[in-house]
Amino acid sequence: MRLLIVGTLKGQLSIATKMAVDKGAAVTNAEDIDTALRVMRAKGADLIMVDVAIDVRALVKALADEMIAVPVVACGTSNDARAAVAAIHAGAKEYIPLPPDPELIAAVLAAVANDAKQLIYRDDAMARVVQLANQVAGSDASILITGESGTGKEVLARYVHTKSNRASAPFVAVNCAAIPDNLLESELFGHEKGAFTGALARRVGKFEEANGGTLLLDEISEMDVRLQSKLLRAIQERVIDRVGGTRPVPVDIRILATSNRTLADEVRKGTFREDLLYRLNVVNLKLPPLRDRPADVLELATHFAKKYAEANGMAVRVLSADARRQLTVARWPGNVRELENTIHRAVLLSSGAEIGADAIRTPDGTRLDERRGPDAVAAQAAEVAEAITRGLVGRTVADVERDLILDTLGHTLGNRTHAANILGISIRTLRNKLNQYADEGHPITPPPQGEARYEMRYG
């Protein structure tokens, strides 16, 4: 557990520091945002605690601009309610009043340390996967974890780490699908100062952050095939090359990877390297979908009902017999993630002594038993298709093309390269279209800061 404390609120944060160390956390202090960013680039952290006297919004934005994902908790004097509200609105996940309470500090650290690490299961199908995970956890073998979206692949990866000989070292996760291709190389391997326009300081990548511990490459099938060759060398040689670097950097890590696709199919398509698949797939932990592990449904539902009742300051209530029946017959196409959201919603909607069947609903308010089976799914798909078709009638092709391009650009958060790939057009064509739309007065999603830097160097 690595904790970064930003600020010096009258020495009271030093009390929090001591409490965190007593709980086994490795603590680093930074007096301001610039120092905090240097620490994050060099060593990373699992949690940031920041004095509300610091500009929390600026810190959160600076982290986001550098694609650094880490929870931020604000700290301030107990009677400063306005600052607490402002910090939460600025992006802090929680507020801790100072002077700090030892139990509260312990609870926050425990929540971060244990977040998404619990394995809740009862079904034999899941038990077999966990048994295999326990057998291989103590080795340094690379493990490929596969399964549908929402089945708990990252949860299982964290479980393997906690059972390994590297449990006391960092666990670092990288979502390969969430980071634009032109930024992922720097995110993984780091960069040297001056490597490209805007690289004002050296930044270590996730490989170096995870040194001595475990690196999870989440949804690795989304990684560009050109970057896969550099990843293969890093795994084979246990050395990396920072972007703009002149000397290889040795690393000691264990690699875990996840995918919701069949990588053998991706190899046949030419979108995934076969030699990389062999390196990653020493052991395959295949998570069954929730519909194939029915005994887990009620076990997980009970766990989530308790979790979200406590998180929302509500009394813990049991699931009624009708609610349990609805949950067990549902197909759960979104797997554990969908079940978790459904139970969270049910906790908030319930008003009686139990969580009743009437509270088990989809996000649009439909009861689960009203939308079950392939016929209902087909009907819903037909309704959506018809609505889309109606929306196109009476519009010009140019208008539809413009909306499609701008919506796709918004979906990719302004990443031109990614948008062009999705649309099946060249980056030059996309830029010409965007220039035309800008001249016509249409708002254009700006490129990420990193992509702008990248295009200045490589475009």
Structure notes:
- The chain is of the alpha/beta class and 459 residues long.
- It folds into 4 domains: 113 residues, Response regulator (Rossmann fold), CATH 3.40.50; 163 residues, P-loop containing nucleotide triphosphate hydrolases (Rossmann fold); 69 residues, Helicase, Ruva Protein, domain 3, CATH 1.10.8; 46 residues, Arc Repressor Mutant, subunit A.
- It is 49% helix and 12% strand.
- The chain contains 20 helices and 12 strands.
- A hairpin with an 8-residue loop joins strand 9 and strand 10.
- The radius of gyration is 24 Å and the shape is globular.
Topology:
Blueprint: E1 2-6, H1 12-22, E2 26-30, H2 33-42, E3 47-51, H3 56-65, E4 72-77, H4 81-90, E5 94-98, H5 102-114, H6 124-137, E6 143-146, H7 153-162, E7 171-175, H8 181-189, H9 206-209, E8 214-218, H10 225-237, E9 239-240, E10 249-250, E11 254-259, H11 263-269, H12 274-280, E12 283-286, H13 295-311, H14 321-329, H15 335-349, H16 374-392, H17 397-411, H18 416-423, H19 427-439, H20 449-458
Parallel strand pairs: 1-2, 1-3, 3-4, 4-5, 6-11, 6-12, 7-8, 8-11
Antiparallel strand pairs: 9-10
Keywords:
459 residues, alpha/beta, Rossmann fold, Helicase, Ruva Protein, domain 3, 4 domains, five-stranded parallel sheet, 12 strands, globular, ATP binding, sequence-specific DNA binding, ATP-binding, activator
